[in-house]
Amino acid sequence: MSSLSTAMECAAKGLVAEPCAGGAHRRCGSCGAVAYCSRAHQFIHWTLHKEECARLATQMSHIDVLSQFPFVFSIESPALNHAIPNTRCFFLESFKVHLKGLWKSECRCGPEISSVKDLSITAEWNMESSLCPCTEPGNSLSAPLASWEEYYRWRSLPLHSPAAVLLHWPLTLYHCLQLSRIQASRCDANDTLRIHYLGPEKELLQLPVFAELLALFPGVHLCIELVGPTVPRSRDGEVLNISSYAHCSAESCCCRSFAASEDVNCSALTLKLWKGVYHERYSDMDSNPHLIVAPNAGLAAYPTWLPTIEMIRKIGIPAMFTDFCEEAAHLASCCISSITGQPLRVPIQVNPFRQPIAENNSALYIPCYSNCFIFGM
């Protein structure tokens, strides 16, 4: 997964006997994606890098495309994020949400997920109502959403609202369902859409933002089971019910007086938490899902994914994955194909609902965003 480090590492670090000679300020002249501490380390690393150089050069050419968003708030480029520390903190401070409510895990200053015992479903936006979706939308969707601009227009949000920084979680889930061609309103006789959500991390401190799924899938009961090593042991097996949107900062807003309807046709969201890895906890989970989703998966980086991919292949459930950068998605696709013997069912593509602030990557200069690329098996 992406690192929050602000300094690039030498691409040959750990692969050569000689220690690095200072910072990695020498970039590859062909792709510009990797950096080295010295000419000697660059020369030694070429035997490995030559296999990926052209591919990384192509990925580097996508920087401008990936950084295109409709928002009017400042979005730093990946290169700038390497040069200036704590850019996320500065960004959050500009909206007065740094370390507050739903935003407290959006920078390095926030708490470690593994140490958090209180995964609150009552955390708030800490913004005025005009900047966040704290109530029902004014109208239902007439067509599937395909961009942040369409979503903001539907939710009557101004383009200077930073809400997308958090809403990329539920909107990415929404997009996964669209790509999987799952008809949410026809999942079963009880209109229950069941999703297994693999590897949650900081989402665990932002669970109330998933209430936006109530607006995206009106009249549907959603049951999402989140399983991952970062789920606190004390919360293993816990069920959380969400029936209203995260609150804005206004004490007088109607979002604070909302009472869930008892109408059986109203939307409802049930979250269930499981600690552990999916292939070990699958038998403990309630039922076969309609879809498996693994955000920012890092498939090629973690060996524990191998038995999970094999199990997903055997049970035959559609699975969607996202990752921070195109290279991680490419390596993941190779991993999936080597295990399943099949090409991806949903090819690698840019996620229109990726987080609109770049992530730092200490290993590569290629553009990285949370939930940036999406693909499926």
From TrEMBL:
GO terms for molecular function: zinc ion binding. It comes from the Eukaryota. Residues 10-53 form the MYND-type domain. InterPro entries: Mss51-like_C, Znf_MYND. Keywords: Metal-binding, Zinc, Zinc-finger. This is MYND-type domain-containing protein.
